[in-house]
TrEMBL record:
This is Aldolase_II domain-containing protein. Keywords: Amino-acid biosynthesis, Lyase, Metal-binding, Methionine biosynthesis, Zinc. One of its GO terms (cellular component) is cytosol. The keyword Secreted does not apply. The keyword Metal-binding applies. Residues 10-198 form the Class II aldolase/adducin N-terminal domain. Belongs to the aldolase class II family. Adducin subfamily. One of its GO terms (molecular function) is acireductone dioxygenase (Ni2+-requiring) activity. GO terms for biological process: L-methionine salvage from methylthioadenosine; L-methionine salvage from S-adenosylmethionine; pentose catabolic process. CDD domains: cupin_ARD.
Length: 371
């Protein structure tokens, strides 16, 4: 999906804030880019803090790196351009400095790659629909000469089973995809489970591994799984969304007797977003399962079972099914953006029965964007 410069600049601003909110863009670290509809590249300007980025911090260059608008492009622009030349379908490239990525690159001090096999999260990578796969994440030594890095990493990127990402040792991670959303998933899979004691305090469990999340939720009757993404237009309607995921939806209906299904979409400029957020941040129950598959976007389900609180951050590709009667609340964040498929036993949909307990006030909310 190609974008105009204005759309790309705004998208890069939003990505910068999200990555900064996770501690992945300290000082002026990182650089981001998008392929535009005219074939040129929108890239972040050198020296900008990505968490405070504005459209003024984005400029255009051609595929040879020549500036097309005022500004000094990032010092690593050549690495972005090499990926666009190597992968014609690449629509966005993100480079972040997460502590996890740096740690992984340093832990493999003598290795040229990390090999992942058997992980549920391998299905995040485009075209991969099973955990029964092997994905290779190349590692290249750092250099101040971008041409040296480009030459060293190229063979590994073209090798079988290479991830659409690579590590620069002691430096950070490059990831790319057909669009910004896919590239961001390569930088980090946001799916996240934290388990707290009901009394509060630090989480006693904190994991981003989908298999671990599913295993932790299963004993309390919560179903968690991931479905492969589908190519959909940004303005895809309900019929298009349901058709794209028809096999999975029909499987759930057959297994659990769900009678109806719909698609809900929330956007940042929804006139009732504040009221809706407040409403569903209050603990409540439903008389039937709450089943939601995230086609795009994200939201935080927090479940209360026994003396434990389970906070599950779901994103694109995640299915969660909360059993009837489970006390929980849902936070779509202050600037919601998600599209989700919902399945119901009752054709009238879910009816929330609020408990009146203010417990939700004691636990983290979903605040994905910070200024």
């Amino acid at each position: 999906m190609t974008m105009s410069f204005e759309e790309a600049a705004q998208g890069l601003v939003e990505v910068g804030r999200r990555l900064d909110a996770r501690g992945w863009a300290p000082a002026t670290a990182g650089n981001y880019s998008v392929r535009l509809d005219d074939g040129s590249i929108a890239v972040t300007v050198s020296g900008w803090h990505k968490g405070r980025l504005t459209p003024a911090g984005v400029m255009r260059v051609d595929l040879d790196g020549n500036p097309l608008t005022p500004g000094k492009p990032s010092a690593e622009t050549d690495l972005h351009l090499s990926l666009y030349r190597l992968f014609p379908d690449a629509g966005a490239v993100l480079h972040g400095h997460s502590p996890e990525a740096v740690g992984m690159s340093r832990a493999a001090a003598d290795a040229s790659e990390w090999v992942f096999a058997g992980h549920e999260m391998l299905k995040v990578f485009p075209g991969n629909t099973t955990h029964e796969a092997e994905i290779r994440l190349p590692i290249v030594d750092n250099s101040q000469d971008m041409a040296v890095i480009e030459e060293a990493i190229r063979p590994a990127l073209l090798a079988p089973n290479a991830a659409p990402a690579y590590l620069i040792r002691s430096h950070g991670l490059y990831a790319w995809g057909k669009d910004l959303a896919e590239a961001e998933r390569g930088v980090e899979t946001m799916t996240h489970l934290r388990i707290f004691e009901e009394s509060g305090g630090a989480p006693v469990t904190d994991t981003r591994d989908a298999a671990e999340i599913a295993a932790a939720l299963s004993p309390i009757g919560v179903r968690f799984e991931q479905w492969a993404s589908r190519p959909l237009a940004a303005d895809a309607g309900q019929d298009e969304v349901l058709e794209a995921f028809a096999p999975e939806v029909e499987r759930l209906k057959a297994e659990n007797g769900y009678q109806s299904v719909d698609v809900i979409r929330m956007v940042p400029d929804h006139p009732e977003k504040a009221n809706l957020r407040t409403k569903f941040l209050s603990e409540h129950r439903h008389s039937e399962d709450e089943v939601r598959f995230f086609v795009e976007g994200e939201g935080l389900f927090t479940l209360r079972e026994g003396e434990k609180i389970y906070a599950v951050l779901c994103e694109e590709g995640d299915l969660i099914s909360v059993p009837a009667g489970t006390r929980h609340w849902f936070d779509m964040g202050p600037s919601p953006r998600f599209t989700a498929i919902r399945l119901f036993t009752n054709a009238d949909g879910w009816i929330a029965n609020f408990t009146g307990d203010p417990i939700a006030e004691r636990f983290p909310r979903h605040e994905p964007v910070t200024a």
